[in-house]
Amino acid sequence: MSCELSETATPEDFARPRWVGQPDVLERAQRLSQKFEEAYGRAPVGVWAAPGRANLMGEYVDFSGGMCLPFAHQYVTLTVAAPREDGVLNAQSMQDADESVADDRPRSTRIDDIEPGVISGWFGYVAGVAWGMNRVARGASAHPVAVPELGLPTSFGADLMVDSTVPIGAGLASSAALECSVALSLFSLNTGNDHPNDALRRALARACMDAENYIVGANTGGLDQTASLRSHAGEILALDCRDFDVVRLPADPALAGLTWLAIDTRAPHKLADGQYSSRRAECEAAAAVLDVPTLRDALPEHPTPDDAAAVLDRFDHLLEVGAELTEDRENTRLRLRHSMTEMVRSVQIADELHSDSPDWAFVGRLLVEGHESMRDDCEVTVPELDAAVDGCLSAGALGAKVVGGGFGGSVIALVSLESVDRLAAAVQLCFAQNGFREPLFLTLQPSEAGRRIL
Ligand code: ADP
Ligand code: MG
Asked: How far is the centre of ligand 2, averaged over its atoms, from the C-alpha of 408 (Å)?
């Protein structure tokens, strides 16, 4: 596989890249409201929108208490809703003809009947949120305190219709966008509060995370839901996954003539089943050897590359003197190295973004190191992801890396505004040369969190 560009290539030499247009959210909301009326025979009471996210650093470290650097992007999932008084939750999705949404029936359940193992397919993301809200309300989740405001009374029900402008299954968090728009709609319908504060948003993010962990059965760590519910426009979140505290980093690459380009590789999700969970198990096994609750606890408060190296040395030493390891030794060491270096890179980027004029070239280099770590140590990339990164770099991107869990999905690149078209063309050509599916291109802007829009 090679994505080297000839020095003389011009954009005209390449096939035209396919861009995902900017989402026309209000028009989609109005169309969805009409669909709602046709389906349910009554008018909806409102429309809620929640975004997907990108992540600059901190992949596969949220469950280890590491720092992530997500931002919400401008592509949202919409939920149009009206309340019911019979405890029933109904949902339909406009994506029912989408190959990535396996189960296309209109779905229905009594909220009281929702429990792990009973709801299949995409409806799990929706029903799971109602279940998760009740769980957080009564203090049964890992959220530090019970948040009774999230509780849904037994008689509470709702009719929902959803539509996503986030590419689905592309690593840009359509699942969190779906959960979070549903959560905001149910919360608003039940309480009349259209402007939940940050504390409530944090609790709603936990409810959405519980939905994904227990009702859908995906072992994810809360990064996506936090970004979708707690981001601010123009800012990157420094999210401390030990306690879900966030620091907001105003960091606008446009001031330096740069932008974020996402490439949805559309690579088929092969081999992904169980891989996220096995990475997590290996990280937990490494933490057990190091005798720390999570891998974040193996590093000091403000970790450096030397600290990361010292942890690896300690791990090797402990195994030499007979510490017990429950997972494969070589794999566990690789995952540990990824976790340590990734946590350090997050801190380095966050430090850089605190400055008034960040050194974006430095940030770009760290993105590339992050990708290499995802490829070589976490071992979650596929040829399409590596080719997209190579293609971006050979066409002059400052940096590029896989976003999210890997095994397909998207790459995010930091590119100069004037080179965006040439860069997309280069990646397009590279994909064609390698016989990959045609990728999709999006420019991403750090955008506001989920909210009621109508
Ligand atoms: P990502 O979150 O990166 O897009 P996931 O695999 O986590 O990828 O989530 C994708 C799944 O989320 C889909 O297969 C589907 O079950 C569900 N989903 C997301 N958006 C929608 C939607 N608009 N309608 C129905 N299901 C959706
Ligand atoms: Mg997801």
From this structure: 12
